[in-house]
Amino acid sequence: MFHTLQSFYRRAFLVGIIAIVLTVIAACGNGNADQKEVNEASNATGSQHSAPTNDTSGETEPSSEDEAQSSTRTFHTIKGDIVIPAAPQRVVTQGFLPYFLLFDIKPIGAPYWEIEYPHLAGLTDGIEDIGQIDGGSVEKILSLQPDLIVTVAQDMYEQYSKIAPTVVIPYESIGDAHKDLRLFGELLGKEAEAEAWLEDFDQKVESSKQELQTLNMENETFSLIGAFDKTYFIYGDGIYRGGQAMYKYLGLKPPAIIQEQVMDAGKETLEISMEVIPDYAGDHIFLDVSNGAVFDEKSALWNSIPAVKNNRVYRLNTDIFWPYDPLAVEMQLDEVLKLLKGSQ
Question: Are 151 and 252 contained in the same domain?
Fold first, then answer.
């Protein structure tokens, strides 16, 4: 019996050992399987953290929409936001030809009277005459196939905007070389060039003012009077007849009545009758006679004015004093000084 029990215990012991071994083997097998799953998962996600490669097959080229956006800009105007070419190649302009030439951009079309400005001599070759700023210009502008139109004519916007993006800049919104040139710098993406030009311009103004001081006229007054067709005007310090150069930059002093009724009132011009001209006459008079006006310089009324008696009336050359762009203002500074020096 003892032998039987001993055999039984031996077999039980062996069975237990075998069971333990099998359990260990099974556990190892499961561990390997788990590790395999971890490795596979790691391999599957490893690309998210792997070092960058030179493979660019997944990159996308800029879309045509992106390219279109980079080749245009949005410019705010009185007609709203207008999408314009970032670098226009075929510009038609009405009223602003000198601004484009100042930035070395030659428009393809402009009115004849701008093309013939004397201060633009040699710069306008090849620019097409589009005629007057009216409906008659539409067909000519259309034939030029512009990619941008810049005009003073608000009433032509609807017709022009059907041809090309159209920017309207009214006459009444301009009249200061600094503000105007910066506006065009923004329009053309040439802000840095505008500032560089204005820096030189300011130096020109300063030297002109110093030259004016040598004439000892700081206590004298200056009137800018025009006879236009059958009408008479007093001009202020804006775009008309060199007023910007005279008053705004050289600092010539107008009579108090002109300061009050024109400059302080925010006006560019004041229409008057011939009979009241003596009321607006300063110690010096700049006189513009144009557009077929008949001005009687022999009248008793005119010759009763002290400036006339003292030979201090300066007839203006319309070719020089009608333009209002910064290049013209620069030229007018010299011309005003020349006229004043001639009176001494």
Answer: no
